[in-house]
Specification:
The complex is a heterodimer of chains A (308) and B (256). Helix content of chain A is 34%, strand content 27%. Chain A is an alpha/beta fold. In chain A, the strands form three sheets. Chain A has a six-stranded mixed beta sheet. In chain A, strands 2-1-4-5 form a four-stranded antiparallel beta sheet, covered by helices on one side. In chain A, helix 2 crosses helix 3. The two termini of chain A are 35 Å apart. With 256 residues, chain B is mainly alpha-helical. Chain B has one domain. Chain B is 74% helix and 0% strand. Chain B is globular and about 60 Å long. The chains are: A alpha/beta (308), B mainly alpha (256).
């Protein structure tokens, strides 16, 4: 693998707060997902990679060069930040045109590039509106347009699907996959596993500033699926439901919360359990009002994996 | 993009945004307030208008409006980008950071010049309406405008510098304008030369403080020396601002 990005002993902290610690990582062409709960260090890593922050210890190189204050490198890099920020008084068109001109395109070429980028994210019709009139999702798409405008070789996207409606989610995922097909490199961060799963199999798990695991998403999926999940089910007749569930081989324990009308199930095979539950609801006509899974988030998975 | 080719692009974009900004419009109105005052004086007592212009208006412009406007425009060059978290768009573009700060500085300076220049010119016209045919009146205007240009250059460069490394630069700047500059300019001997206003006042034909209640008075420096000091100080402030902006990492928010 030819490494596009190479981090060696990379560490960064803010006063007493650790951002990332001792990260050694090589990322090559294709899509790589940075996955971790909020505060894990994903954004810090991407900000160092985008030249916004300096490493405290170690180094991070892109295309063999250091990034901070290396403006020429940004001809080859596109970065979509996590913040909901933009020049709110500008129109979407002026914002993108400004960036296109800063990328060195002459006025005519910049206009063509801007039009293409805005069309890609579905904002061409709204290009003359001021950004402050855009919805959150539109601003997110505008940020994405700003990062793909110059068709970079390396695209870094920090939580790119945040606030995006389902239809555009699919389109953006397709766009990211299109980049992969062109042999480019995409690094995308998220704290939502299915988002990353929809884009790539190659993931880097970050937790508490360190790389926790790296590799194929199926391996991580396996760990997550065998993670004992707690599932809360609100229903009018919890004991009837419990009687049906008690024979299920994937159920580890059943509990009746004192203050709620329902039951809490612990299972080590979440998907199988849900299939069985759906059958009970459909065949045995057991009424269920609400199903929640307090463990169904990355933080819980990480806590489980590190043995908390 | 090579070297500083991005400066005109950044300048044009931020000048245009600045013209439309509410803040500019508010400051434009503030800059016209002395004009209104001047017209009132002229209506009440036309004979005292030139004298009023020299003594009061100059104090208003050079000791209040120019430093305060330069403070607000200079410090926001970087601070506004940090507050709005927009700096990332400029620093991930393939342009040198110095082009970013210089382009924005030029845009802010031209806006300042427009605000101050318009008010200044109108005030002057109101004050010198009776002697507009005299060359001396226009020469006087030239001196005032030239001095205001130097004052704007120096103050805005200083406050741009402050904005590159201080988060609360407006507060510190206000202390500088209303504390240091207002008080130390009256200190005797060399001490008053450590203020910018000393060098500005040294260029003005009429000293606004003459006959004031303070014991210590301005001891003007030679005009050429004053011009050089203001130019060199402004260039040093600007160079320092560029130096810091190129090297400093700006943390835009809580980092995840």
């Amino acid at each position: 693998m030819t490494a596009v990005l190479r981090a060696e002993k990379l560490s960064k902290w803010y006063g007493n707060i650790l951002g990332i610690s001792d990260i050694n990582l090589e990322i090559g062409p294709g899509i790589t997902g940075l996955l971790g709960p909020n505060g894990a260090g994903k954004s810090t890593f991407l900000k160092i990679a985008a030249g916004q922050l300096k490493p405290k210890i170690g180094s991070l190189q892109i295309f063999g060069e250091n990034v901070f204050a290396n403006h020429r490198l940004f001809q080859r890099i596109g970065f979509c930040p996590e913040h909901d920020s933009a020049y709110m008084e500008m129109s979407g068109w002026r914002f993108i045109m400004l960036l296109a001109r800063l990328h060195g395109f002459a006025a005519e070429a910049a206009a063509a590039m801007s039009e293409k980028a805005l069309a890609t994210v579905g904002l061409l019709d709204s290009k003359d509106r001021t950004i402050k009139g855009y919805s959150f999702g539109m601003r997110q798409r505008l940020r994405l347009a700003s990062s793909i405008l110059h068709e970079p070789e390396l695209l870094m996207l920090d939580e790119p699907l945040r606030g995006i409606d389902p239809l555009w989610r699919i389109k953006i995922i397709q766009l990211i996959k299109e980049y992969e097909k062109q042999g480019k490199t995409v690094i995308v961060s998220s704290h939502i596993l299915p988002e990353i799963e929809a884009m790539t199999n190659e993931i880097v798990l970050i937790h508490q500033g360190k790389i926790f695991a790296k590799g194929d998403i199926q391996r991580i999926r396996g760990l997550i699926d065998s993670h004992p999940h707690q599932i809360s089910i609100h229903c009018p007749d919890p004991r009837r439901l419990a009687a049906k569930l008690v024979d299920n081989e994937y159920v580890l324990s059943l509990d009746f919360p004192v203050q709620e009308r329902g039951l809490t199930v612990k299972t080590n095979q979440r998907d199988h359990f849900f299939n069985a539950l759906m059958r009970l609801i459909a065949v045995d006509k057991i009424a269920v009002e609400e199903i929640t899974s307090p463990d169904d988030n990355l933080q819980a998975v990480f806590d489980y994996l590190i043995g908390k | 993009m090579k070297n500083l080719n991005a400066i005109p692009i950044i300048f044009a974009s931020f000048f245009r945004s600045g013209l439309k900004a509410t803040r500019t419009r508010v400051f434009m109105l503030l800059g016209l307030a002395p004009v209104l005052l001047m017209f009132i004086v002229r209506l009440v007592d036309a004979g005292s208008a030139p004298d009023f212009f020299s003594k009061v208006m100059l104090s208003l412009y050079f000791q209040l409006l120019i430093p305060v406007l330069a403070l607000f425009f200079g410090t926001t060059i970087v601070n506004e980008e940090l507050d709005n978290k927009t700096l990332v768009y400029l620093t991930t573009a393939p342009v040198p950071r110095r082009a970013v700060i210089l382009g924005k500085y030029l845009a802010a300076s031209l806006l300042l010049l427009l605000i101050v220049g318009c008010g200044f010119l109108l005030s002057f016209l109101a004050a010198a309406a009776n002697r507009l045919g005299q060359a001396a009146a226009w020469e006087e205007l030239g001196v005032f405008l030239g001095t205001s240009l130097l004052a704007l250059f120096c103050y805005s460069a200083l406050f741009t510098l402050a904005g590159t490394f201080m988060k609360k630069s407006i507060l510190i700047g206000l202390f500088f304008v209303f504390g240091w500059e207002s008080v130390v300019q009256y200190f005797p001997g060399v001490t008053q030369k450590f203020t910018i206003i000393h060098w500005i006042k040294s260029l003005l034909p009429v000293q606004a403080d003459q006959g004031g209640f303070l014991i210590f008075q301005l001891q003007p420096s030679p005009a050429l020396e004053s011009v050089l000091v203001l130019l060199i100080a402004g260039l040093i402030f600007l160079a320092a601002a560029v130096f810091i902006f190129e090297r400093k990492e700006y943390i835009l928010s809580d980092n995840a």
